[in-house]
Model the fold of this input.
Amino acid sequence: MKKILLFITISFLMISTTYSQNNEKKYSIRTIAFYNLENLFDTINDPSINDEASPMMELKANRSKVYWDKIDKLASTIAQIGADMANTSPAIIGVSEVENRSVLEDLVKNKHLIKKEYGIIHYDSPDKRGIDVALLYQKKYFKPIFHEVFNPNIYKGNFKVFTRDQLLVSGYLDDEMIHVIVNHWPSRSGGEEKSRPLREKAAYQNTLIINQIRKNDVNAKILTMGDFNDDPINASFKEVLKTKSEKNEVDETAIYNPYEDMFRRGFNTLGYRDKINLFDQILISEPLLDKGEKDFSTYKMYKAMIFNKRFLTIRKGQYKGYPFRSFSNGGYTGGYSDHYPVYMYLIKEKK
Done:
């Protein structure tokens, strides 16, 4: 009995010592996120785009009240993403389904975010409905030095598909150069099979941007994020971007997708017509990947997650378990978005 007690005591001391030694290391934690804001349109008609087709403009009454309620709900959500570990909202968050810069300014000036001092990078895209992608960033953590938009220039026969741009932003996360690509690939309108070539062409545009970055820096830290309108196992990822789900398969030419394993385990970011999908993802290049060596001397991905809190989820009825969307059947539901946000923690050991 004494020997057993001695063994237990020694084992406990060893565990305690190891835990203490690990806790001596302190880390900078930065949250990187993406959120489809579900038709964040203002209440003013823009004759240059088809914003009349937006759910906001289709409302018969109380547009202004609905608009500000939606702004408040989205801002409150963004403020909470990653805050449990990073003690602040995302350092960088890509967004999609925004009408213009004005709605983003209203968003970052909301009471939940105004003290974070978010900067905005936004371009008007050629999308016929007028929906764009953009990047928001906390100025104290991220310093952009370059940004540019690329359109996939997709054609159906002789007709151009006016889809969203892909936004590239390069800058310093604290003292490290990173490159972020924000995407919103063509929808599955007309069916997945019929629309598949459009997303594969969008994926090819992504490869061109990534190759352009790597031409100047083979060890570039790249994150490509967005609402891809494809699941992680679809050809746009596996055959065009050549994404990998196993860390040991990722080399300097590959892209790692942490959301593929989540998808295979049944996780989702949206639901539509009794089918769940994981369209919202963040992918990374090899220099951001910890392959088990536990070397966090520079920023590496610690964990990728889906922000699927209960308040963002429908709790009863036909669509129980789906994201609590803002608009349905021509009316406002009081919800947030038809997509869950996704996010990942990048961590670096403090010197």
